[in-house]
Amino acid sequence: MRDGVVGTDGAGHQVSGGPGGARVEAFSDAIIAIAATLLVIELAVPAAGADVGHALREEVPAFLTYAVSFLTILIFWVNHHALFGLIRQVDRPLLFLNGLVLLGISFISYPTATLGRALQGGVHDRAAAVFYAAVLCGTASAFTGIWCYLRARPHLLREAARGGVRGALRRSLAGPTAYAIAIVVGAVHAAAGLGVCALVAAYFTLAPRGLGRGGAA
Amino acid sequence: MRDGVVGTDGAGHQVSGGPGGARVEAFSDAIIAIAATLLVIELAVPAAGADVGHALREEVPAFLTYAVSFLTILIFWVNHHALFGLIRQVDRPLLFLNGLVLLGISFISYPTATLGRALQGGVHDRAAAVFYAAVLCGTASAFTGIWCYLRARPHLLREAARGGVRGALRRSLAGPTAYAIAIVVGAVHAAAGLGVCALVAAYFTLAPRGLGRGGAA
Amino acid sequence: MRDGVVGTDGAGHQVSGGPGGARVEAFSDAIIAIAATLLVIELAVPAAGADVGHALREEVPAFLTYAVSFLTILIFWVNHHALFGLIRQVDRPLLFLNGLVLLGISFISYPTATLGRALQGGVHDRAAAVFYAAVLCGTASAFTGIWCYLRARPHLLREAARGGVRGALRRSLAGPTAYAIAIVVGAVHAAAGLGVCALVAAYFTLAPRGLGRGGAA
Amino acid sequence: MRDGVVGTDGAGHQVSGGPGGARVEAFSDAIIAIAATLLVIELAVPAAGADVGHALREEVPAFLTYAVSFLTILIFWVNHHALFGLIRQVDRPLLFLNGLVLLGISFISYPTATLGRALQGGVHDRAAAVFYAAVLCGTASAFTGIWCYLRARPHLLREAARGGVRGALRRSLAGPTAYAIAIVVGAVHAAAGLGVCALVAAYFTLAPRGLGRGGAA
To answer: Which terminus of chain C, N or C, has fewer Cβ atoms within 10 Å?
Structure first.
């Protein structure tokens, strides 16, 4: 029943008596699954008596934003899973950094709805695209922050994973970098900003080596 | 704690170091459970002071659509479970195809709400019924896509399951076919389109052999 | 990874190759947890600039209905758990009956919101109280239906549980009976109908023997 | 499959045949994960065609309240996990007290939305801050209630945990005390009340010893 790890590490820091890797991962999985599924709630349902075909065509930008966010959250999940597969022990700062990742992922449905609506009007408000890419960038950066922390405290990793942490950290910079580009592009053209995020999702879904290795985040 | 399978398959393709079958199934189960439970949110609650009895009678078409979608998602769950019970190893394209199935299932609450409202007005907008059946058809087709992929890469299946993949693929065509019929019927008469989807759900719930064998999807 | 039970029972009926008891229970647990947590979404948040103290006092009937429903769903969970603890094997009709229970539990947030709002206006619409108690009655009856089915097919139960099924079925009639009374009382006085449901929840929470034995359902 | 504990304790009280510690913890984890993730739904999405940058600036108080609540729920989760790690056996009153904790945590999204909106208008309604801190205070008090109950019935705890229950109870008073201060501060100045709750969350996230020991609750 208990998978937590309690003790004091070599450097004398107290290691949290809180939940171990498996329990943190199960809780994180639940939050990520809910975040992905909740995205649909923000889509506007055509009113009773409305011309449904017309209303659905109007919603197409919202559907696209929804699909990009859903796929992005699934990629975050795969990367989160791969990351926690390497972890032997969870201490307090790691728990906090993971909390930031979960805060970011849980929040994604809000900028998704904001961008989906902004792309429907004639205005195509670029602030919505910048906001959307910034939330993804922040979430990916929190992932990178976990890798930074793990590089400094390799005893939290499984023996076999310690050699690869430097490479994983370097690869994990791809996510924040790509979303920083999406911020800049979105500041110029809202739909193009979403397009960059869609390309990032497609790349990490289809590229032969990025997935499952902390690539997108 | 780790159930992932890492390695290179015989054909030289890299097999993802991502989550194994059990972990993917648990995550999928969570998404499917949430998708089924979220359906209720889109039902319109009678306003304070309204004539509740009258308002509830108005909502009957929305209740029926809700019940059909709930049952359909449960059937998808049973089929998803039976499918993953046969899988030995998860690679990247399978992860992606499963993501499409989850995207479809998560999305169902939107066409459900759209159709539920469209059936309440006097118009009975047929676009709503076509949209509803099309989303179910797409989701069932993604299931069939998984079977197609597994037929081409039987090493992902358990030894004992490899002989049955051809039959499972053939049976899994029943879902897309039935929902294609629902699209055509819905294009003629909205409520009849929902009726076809209800019959599909009833058949796969009650038929003695379809359930648990990928039949509805 | 697999906990399903496949085979043919003594009577020659095909036993579903679908999910076994543990997997059905985990999926049901997820749906019940989500149903309980979603209840809060239907509470009306005071608008920006409103007199919050006044708005909250107006919401008190909705808070009470919320608390009764939350507690009732927790009791359903305890009973569901106790029930599945006795089950050795899941066949198709049992899966379908369990689906009805889950449909009822998932739906509870809708009559909860309806009754919460109806009790806020001056009208205290009795149809809302009848509807609320009827949904609870239907859900509890689906539980009783499971016990009826298990009495007829005791091979689905664990050896040690077969002797107690007759008593469990009798006790499980308490739920539908109590909620039938709540329907009648609610048809006379809406708030009193909610009061009966609150008493039922309090009884099954506090009574020394009912809990964990299928009593409330 | 079964982790429940059935029996009669030394004092002759009947111990529930309901779910054991692991099962109660898994169910509680699910509710807590959903409660954290649902918080985002209450944030107001800028309307189509609105000035998104302006609308987002208006929402900043709601974002801050959201972040404080998300972090607070994560801390409740860590404490809940640490608590159930010490429990050997679950009886009926413990199940009921845990239900109160879950009711409180599930409800947090409502005062969060109320306070987030109240801080947006020019009024800064103090009732919203008092309500917010009161719900957190009540939830933390329910945690303390569990410790009180466990002190009186140490046989429910694991052998090794029995010596520490007095200290854990004392530490668990920090939560209700801090939130009582937040109530008083909020009654004077709404934003300052939220500030106290933010400090509590920051303290239990960052303090070297509080976390994982029932400190915040």
So the answer is: N
CA atoms within 13 Å, Cβ hemisphere of A45: 25
Residue B65 CA to residue A15 CA, distance in Å, equals 52
pTM of the entire predicted model: 0.88
- Whether D44 and chain A come into contact, CB under 8 Å, resolves to no
Phi/psi at A124 (nearest 5 deg)? 55, 55
Of B21, B36, B78, which has the smallest distance from its Cβ to C106's Cβ?
Answer: B36
Alpha helices in C108-189 (DSSP H): 109-118, 126-152, 165-172, 174-188
**SS3 (DSSP) at C168:** helix
| 3-state class (DSSP) for residue B115 | helix
Q: Are C161 and C86 in contact (CB under 8 A)?
A: yes
Structural contact between residues D96 and C206, judged by C-beta atoms closer than 8 angstroms: yes
Q: With contacts defined as CB-CB under 8 Å, which chain A residues touch B102?
A: 36, 74
Nearest-neighbour CA in chain A from D183: distance (Å): 26
Q: Mutation target for D interface from C32, C40, C65: give the one with most D CBs within 10 A.
A: C40
Cβ under 8 Å to B: A residues 186-205: 205
pLDDT digit of tens for each residue in chain D (217 aa)? 333 333 333 333 333 444 567 888 899 999 999 999 999 999 999 988 889 999 999 999 999 999 999 999 999 998 998 888 889 888 888 988 999 999 999 999 999 999 999 998 767 789 999 999 999 999 999 999 999 999 999 999 988 888 888 888 898 999 999 999 999 999 999 999 999 999 999 988 876 554 444 433 3
Dump the DSSP string for B118-182.
HTTSSS--HHHHHHHHHHHHHHHHHHHHHHHHHHH-GGGB-GGGGGGHHHHHHHHTHHHHHHHHH
Phi-psi region of D139 (alpha: psi -120 to 50; beta: other; left: phi over 0): alpha
Asked if residue A37 lies in contact with residue B31, where contact means CB atoms within 8 angstroms, the answer is yes
Residue among C41, C96, C128 whose CB faces B41 most closely: C41
Cβ pair B117:A34 closer than 8 A:
no
Report yes or no: B138 at the A interface, CB cutoff 8 Å: no
Please tell me what DSSP assigns to residue D51. -
Judged by a CB distance cut-off of 8 A, whether residue D127 touches chain C is yes
Partner-chain residue, chosen from C18, C106, C107, that has the shortest CB–CB distance to B81: C18
Cβ distance C58 to B58 under 8 Å?
no
* R_g (Cα) of chain A, nearest Å: 19
